[in-house]
Each structure stands twice: as C-alpha cells, then as structure tokens.
Specification:
By secondary structure, this protein is an alpha/beta fold. It has 15 helices and 14 strands. The chain folds into 2 domains: 209 residues, Glycogen Phosphorylase B (Rossmann fold, 3-Layer(aba) Sandwich), CATH 3.40.50.2000; 156 residues, Rossmann fold (3-Layer(aba) Sandwich), CATH 3.40.50. The strands form 2 sheets. Strands 3-4-2-1-5-6-7-8 form an 8-stranded mixed β-sheet, with helices on both faces. Strands 11-10-9-12-13-14 form a 6-stranded parallel β-sheet, with helices on both faces. The radius of gyration is 21 Å and the shape is globular. The N and C termini lie close together (5 Å).
Length: 388
C-alpha cells in the first residue's frame, strides 16, 4: 500500500523537532507494509528532493528565497490572520503544494492521501483526492482546530475538509470533541501520533537533580510559560527552571523573569535536537506543561517515557496523557498560585514523584509506541482502500 503525506511540518535535518512524529509514523508504517512519500515546504539549505530513512520527501517553494516564513515557525495561522503579506504567501503556498502533490501523485500512485492539519494541507488534500479519485484521511493536530474555533471565516474551509475526507482522525479526545463543537460532523477517530520510545527512556544511572523543573516548548503565549514563571516566583521550595525552546516572546519572558526576581533561577537553554533533549528529561525533577487547551502535548509523553513526572493543567488533550495522581499531576484551577501549589506538593513528596513517573512510562508505552500507532493508521488506510 502507498500513502502520500501532505504536511507543512517535517524534519529538515537530523535532530530537527519540527514534525518529528510524522517522520516516526512514516518509518514505522513500513512494518505494516505501507510505503509513504511526503510533500512538505522548502526551507533554506534543504534539498528539493531527498530520501531520509527510506522516505522520499518532495519540498515545494512558495515565495522568493528568504521570504518563505510561513512554515516551521509554529505560527502560520497567526501570521495569516494578522498580515496581508502572509495571506498572499498563503495563496502561493496552497498553489505550490497542490502542484507538488499532483506531480508526486502521478509518479507515486498512492492508494490513500493523508493530510496532516486541515489547514492548509487538508484543503490541498481535498483537491488532490478529488482529482485522483483517492480517499483522503485528515488528521487534526491542535493548532488547526484552534484556528477553526477562534476565526469565524475559517469555518467554511474546516467544514469543507471534514465533509470531503473519507476519514478524520484527531490526536486526542479533546480535539475530537472540539471539532464537533465547531461544525456539525461525525466524531473523528482518536488516533494519537507516535513518540520515539527507543530515544526517550529512563536513565540507567539515576541522577535526577533535586528541585530542578523543566519546560519544553515554543516561547509564545499559547504554551503558557508566562504562567509558569509567575508560579515559580511564588513557590515555597524555590526550584530552578530549565527552559528548552525558542520563540517570539523570548525577550519579553526574560524581562518578566527579572521583574519577578527569579532570573538567577531560570536557565534559557534554547531549542535542542531530540537527542540532547533526552538528557534534560532524565535529569529534571519534573516537567511542567503550563499550556491551556493543548491539542495533545507530546512533550509530556516524552517526559513520561523517561520516567519524569509531569505537572500540567487539567485542560485540552493533556488529560489523555496524564491521569491525576496516577501518572502525573493535573491542576484544575488555571492560575499561577494553583500551579505553584502543585509544584510545591510534588517537591515535598518523599519520592519527588518517582512513582508517578514510573506509572507514566507504562501508560506512554501502551498508548504512544510507534508500532501501535502505525498499526492503527494502517488499519484506517486499508479500510478505505481494501484492495491495495
């Protein structure tokens, strides 16, 4: 069986975290006798066509060199909403992705087209699937559902993609329910993305640092790090915090840390490749995920695989990952004071959450192992194209 992936996020080089779960899904599907080819945007210094881990990747240009800024930054929807220039680039993006997909479809002859994120790839997927008379699978990852929920003029497009998809999946139960709230549709199937279980594993030598918390994610409002900084400022235990990631709010957040008088307790690490990130998970006392309405929260799964306890708000898809007081701590009250209390509680516990971390790893292995996720998607594909 052959499947064509359409995405605006796929690793550009070894260790690149952008869309790394899609690369893992594509490679894991080989064990299910599914061959994948990927259509993704171009980026500086990345070949137009290359084969990585046996997966062919075709990359399309959509604007003059140096101006291709929509993809890989994690804020495509925001750019398009706020800038006419970005909207013009989006038109070029859609047209270029469609042309690249049509060319690949003719050469590859896929049995199924799989669009990741309804915007923008699901739109292109509906055109490509209609032209080729092939079934379309659309997966909702989170930011795309948030766009449909908050931007009214996007809802006709969202409805169009869902109505013209042979199957719709969501990476969490929360997203499946949110999609139904936005438009009247049958419930998407819940099918999460995989996590690299071989890469993310517990340390064999122990070595967790006492009272050192970890944040991993984009430095923007959606990821909630401002709330975490304010929580750190009022904790009783006065823990250290490692911040792994970059983003548009970095300067403002550093200024806030200084204003809160915790600058000496916060280390700004920057973005890291996954291989280096593992060591931060292994050494942290706990990972804190302060985002609200997160689509799923794969960083929480990565931490669990390293037996690192997770503290998060009881919001969005994180409730699919963390079971309160069993595999981590979920905070009901979305406030800095409540988050600080949860942090203090874990740091004051005799084992500093070690039992939660061990249970979290078992849950993560059962739910997010690449073999299990690939088997689920292969079953969906074969249901839609039984003769392939």
């Amino acid at each position: 069986m052959k499947v064509l992936f359409l995405t605006h996020n796929y690793p550009r080089r070894p260790g690149d975290a952008s869309g790394s779960f899609l690369q893992l899904l594509a490679t894991s599907l080989r064990a299910e006798d599914v061959e994948v080819r990927v259509i993704a945007p171009a980026d500086a210094g990345v070949p137009a066509t290359e084969t990585v881990d046996g997966i062919q990747i075709d990359r399309f240009h959509y604007a003059p060199r140096g101006q291709e800024t929509l993809a890989y930054a994690g804020n495509m929807a925001t750019q398009v909403k706020e800038s006419w220039g970005a909207r013009m680039k989006l038109l070029g993006f859609l047209g270029s992705e469609f042309r690249c997909a049509v060319k690949a479809r003719r050469a590859f002859e896929p049995d199924v087209i799989h669009a990741h994120w309804w915007f923008p790839n699901g739109l292109v997927g509906t055109w490509t699937a209609r032209m080729s008379d092939k079934p379309l699978v659309t997966t909702l990852h989170g930011t795309d559902v948030r766009l449909a929920r908050t931007v009214a003029f996007s809802r006709p497009g969202f409805r169009h993609v869902l109505q013209h998809s042979a199957a719709v999946t969501a990476v969490s139960q929360f997203l499946a329910e949110e999609a139904q709230k936005v438009v009247s549709t049958s419930a998407p199937q819940v099918a999460p993305m995989p996590v690299a279980t071989q890469l993310f594993s517990p340390s064999q030598n122990g070595g967790r640092k006492p009272d050192r918390l970890l944040f991993v994610g984009r430095l923007n409002a959606q990821k909630g790090i401002e709330m975490l900084l304010r929580a750190i400022a009022v904790t009783t235990n006065k823990p250290m915090l490692d911040v792994v990631g970059d983003g548009p709010d970095e300067a403002r957040l550093k200024a806030l840390a200084a204003e809160l008088e915790i600058a000496d307790r916060v280390r700004w690490i920057g973005a890291l490749p996954q291989q280096q990130l593992t060591e931060y998970y292994r050494s942290a006392t706990a990972l804190v995920v302060p985002s609200v309405n997160e689509g799923l929260g794969l960083v929480a799964v990565e931490a669990q695989l390293c037996e690192t306890p997770v503290i998060a708000f009881d919001s969005g898809g994180l409730s699919d990952v963390v079971s309160n007081q069993r595999t981590g701590i979920l905070v009901e009250d979305i406030s800095a004071s409540a988050l600080a209390a949860a942090i203090d509680s874990l740091l004051a516990s005799p084992d500093r959450g070690a039992a939660l971390g061990a249970a979290g790893r078992l849950h993560a292995l059962a739910t997010f192992a690449p073999e299990s996720v690939a088997r689920r998607y292969a079953t969906i594909y074969r249901t839609l194209a039984p003769g392939a």
